[in-house]
Specification:
The protein is mostly helical and 195 residues long. The chain folds into two domains: 34 residues, no CATH class; 146 residues, Nitrile Hydratase, Chain A, CATH 3.90.330.10. It has a two-stranded parallel ribbon. Helix 3 crosses helix 4, helix 4 packs across helix 5 and helix 8 packs across helix 9. The radius of gyration is 18 Å and the shape is globular.
């Protein structure tokens, strides 16, 4: 049994106990989970990325003031009070970590993945980012600089991945489908569309 499995079992047990004691309504829990899966999550961030890829004026505003530009799309809130957008390019690959805890831009990325909060990710991404990215399945070419951004309560980072080649004719919705949560953290790249 993995640590994630054990944690899931504990969460389910606590939730069952709270429901049984009448302290929590399961319908409320379901609505909260649905809210974070649909209204607050990676789909929001993917819309931001697609807009940055297709709208030069928005892209400029996004890099000048990420929080304000993202708010134009209706995304914001307590965990999104100061979002800084950083851009992956052919020369630089950006990746985000929070070395102190797990500061994370929830309005555009949803709930943080378990690995993002782990001590191993938080320490190794700073000490050996290229090696850890490789272990996570992303080989960054030696010719490309890896830049690590440390999120905090003062600033949370959103990686704008490189736009995949051959996507010039795609609309915003199709482009958003190529963007994953992991690509906006920087541990993956945007997907290449199926041909």
């Amino acid at each position: 049994m993995t640590a994630d499995d054990a944690r899931a079992i504990r969460v389910e047990a606590v939730e069952s106990l709270l429901v049984e004691k009448g302290l929590v309504d399961p319908a409320v829990v379901d609505r909260i989970v649905e809210h974070y899966e649909t209204n607050v999550g990676p789909l929001n961030g993917a819309k931001v990325v697609a807009r940055a890829w297709t709208d030069p004026a928005f892209r400029e505003r996004l890099f000048a003031n990420g929080t304000k530009a993202i708010a134009e799309l209706g995304f914001g809130g307590p965990e999104g009070a100061m979002i800084v957008a950083v851009e992956n390019t052919p020369e630089v690959h950006n990746v985000v970590v929070c070395t102190l805890c797990s500061c994370y831009p929830w309005p555009v990325l949803g709930l943080p993945p378990t690995w993002y909060k782990s001590d191993a990710y938080r320490s190794r991404m700073v000490a050996e980012p290229r090696k850890l990215l490789g272990e996570m399945g992303l080989e960054v070419p030696a010719t490309k600089k890896v830049r690590v951004w440390d999120s905090s309560a003062e600033a949370r980072y959103l990686v704008i991945p490189e736009r995949p080649p051959g996507t010039e004719a795609l609309g915003a919705e199709e482009l958003a489908a190529l963007v994953s949560r992991d690509s906006m953290i920087g541990v993956a790249v945007a997907k290449v569309p199926a041909s």
